[in-house]
Fold each of these.
Amino acid sequence: MSSASPPSSASGLRAPGGTGWLRAQGLLPVACVLTVLMLLWYALAIALNAPGAIERHLGGPDAPWTATELVQTTWSMARPILPAPHQIAQDTWHSLLDWPIDHPRSLIFHARVTAEATLLGFVLGALLGALLAIGIVHSVTLERALMPWIVASQTVPVLAIAPIVLVVLGSLGFTGVLPKAVIAMYLCFFPVTVAMVQGLRAPQAIERELLHTYAATRWQGLWLLRLPSALPYLFPALRVAVAAGLVGAIVAELPTGAQAGLGARLLTSSYDGNTVQIWSALLMATVLGVLLTTAVSGLERLALRHRGAVR
């Protein structure tokens, strides 16, 4: 006698709610860690701000204040040592919505200025890194001559080199976005160069020999074989490069006394002792970095889709 086949293990172990339940399970650890971090942040804000709150707002340690008043004061001070998360969120919200996007007090205005320098430096750095990698792969002489200097260039702190570059370019008449883009390019080109060298050398010998049998030129081999093979290596480096370029653009705004950009916002807020604005500028820089790396990831999907590397 034939009997009905038992249900498959996959269907029998299916979680309630399907993919939605699995997605919720994946987000649960992230939510737990975020909750713990927020609680620790609020507790640390109380501990760090309590001495100033007692002396300046509650009348001193001998005044008749309560623990509730102390907590409320430490979470609402105008210039706290460590602002509470809700203070940072409120300042960011007001800076985004209460001012026109071209106003110097708008975070969007400062983020746009920094993004322009970052993107220009990212493009220049990616092109420079790709050209250096192509030269290194095709010439042993260039590899021996350039690679040590490329590696050594990253040992110079960007804080030390930024004023020099800005002064030199300023003396040549280059001001505005370009000097900051050069600093961003300085941080962008290295990861692109290293990844591209590895990617351009990824094709196996049998693949190179096949092109040789078709009498392909060196540039045809580069275009048809080496560059497509280098794409999976290139895009992770581009994500690192665009984040590093953002850091370079912000650092380049610090020693110039710039009036616009997230670096300028950080500098003026530190001069005024406005720690809430410092943290809101840092939050905006983080959001900008996430947006830029997400954009590069989108380009990666478009570029690799036809190769079957991304589904």
Amino acid sequence: MKHTSNHSLPRRSTLGLLAASGLALAAGMPQLASAQAAFPSRQVTLVVPFPPGGGPDLAARIIGEKLAPRLGQPVVVDNKPGAGALVGASFVAKAPADGHTLLLTPNTMVISPHVLPPGAGGGVDVHKDLAPVIAPATTPLVLVANPSLGANNLKAALEAARKSPGLPYGSAGNGSPMHFAGEMFKRSTKLDLMHVPYKGVAPSITASLAGEVKLLYVGLGGAVPHIKAGKLVPLAVTEARRSELLPEVPTATEQGVPGVEVNAWYGVFAPAATPAATIARINREINEVIKMPEVRDKLMAAGIEVAGGSPQVLEGFMKADNQRYGTLARELNIKAD
């Protein structure tokens, strides 16, 4: 009996300690969960997967400036270009899923997997590894010309292109919406044009200003100052109807070139496992930011139109573009160089 008692006492004591520890852990769980769920608790990084100076970068900086005081934390824009937005997308997908690292990208990210080799940009699956947050803005695509082409409208540009077989046109990169617009334009007009991809909107504009390419498909965001200064001539917008940002510029269809309808949207994404409450908070704050008159005015001055809405709206954009551009990539034989 004494032997049994000597063994049973420590067991009861150990069980008691474990129970007490369990109660202490349970008591501390709400505080622990609260600490883990706290957002934001530090700087928020808004990754833009293209170089500075283009539409996505401008949108990120305009929105980030007003988002910071609403979150009570700094919002810093970090440019990580490469692989048609997939480098930046991969970086964000691998970041801690706590809302402090976000991606602001054009729909190039959805298109790139259809034209780049498998595994490009780190092998990110943009549909599984990222969570849609909000589509804060859109921008019309426009065909512009260097003034040296001598064309003030689309008809004159077509005539100039027919006289110069192999005339180069620029875009923001392989698989970009601009690239697709250019190839759809070629198919519709049967023109002999040579595609010259650049690493983002800003470098493509720089090349066009320098006369490296006489024609350029570009998102209006980033091109507006050069259009206003007369350094780039807008020839056509690639949407079903005219843009309120360039009401005087006809669509390609209006000018006898049907089938060239491409638009660009900007989406904000978080790592896939980000808590729903955090995504809802970011969505709510950005929706409020883009309602501010000063933000709308700055975006519109930069050639960017305000959008907004729920994460489901952005998810719908993604699904529609994934299907459409997957089909177009096959039809137009668009691949990475």
Amino acid sequence: MSALSEPALAQRNQPPLDQYEPVYLTAAEGAFVMAAVARIIPSDGDGPGAIEARVPVFIDRQLAGDFGAASDLYMEGPFAPGADMNLGTQSPLTPAEIYRQGIAAFDAWCRSEQGAAFGDLDPDAQDAALQALADDAVGLKPELREFWTLLLQNTKEGYFADPRHGGNAGMQAWVYIGFPGARANFHEWAGRDEAYPLGPVDIAGERA
């Protein structure tokens, strides 16, 4: 058996999610992300939930890296946060800053409207709060109006991305949808009305 690569070893040696030490999120912010992604992709569905896929780890790492710092975005002013969303990103804040301020503002709204921070609400109340956030009914300032879009986008990315990025633990999401991952050649199966017979392979060469 060949030796595991460093990325594969890192994936295999992950601590339990409740023992993960965030690199960007504070403890309170991490608790919010855990609670929010658990409602976006819940654990009681047919497949693995966001918690089982370790989506919070993916989000934390992304916010601590180039994505969170907006390294690939033009961040020179002038900014027009209230402009039409079709004009693209107009916030002067980086994604990491949008998360930090967005979580604080949303938790404050939850306390005012629901009587508790988001993570302390029951699941039905959390769903209602997230729906209000998605409907732009929370009253976030224009600089933060991308908060819901980013949270939803990053949850999906963490669920389906290669495990080397922290989420999709054990390639569970790929197994669930029958995605072959980084296999070099499976084109002969495209279009067949039958399940692909082999499990996925990640970029590090690990098999599910």
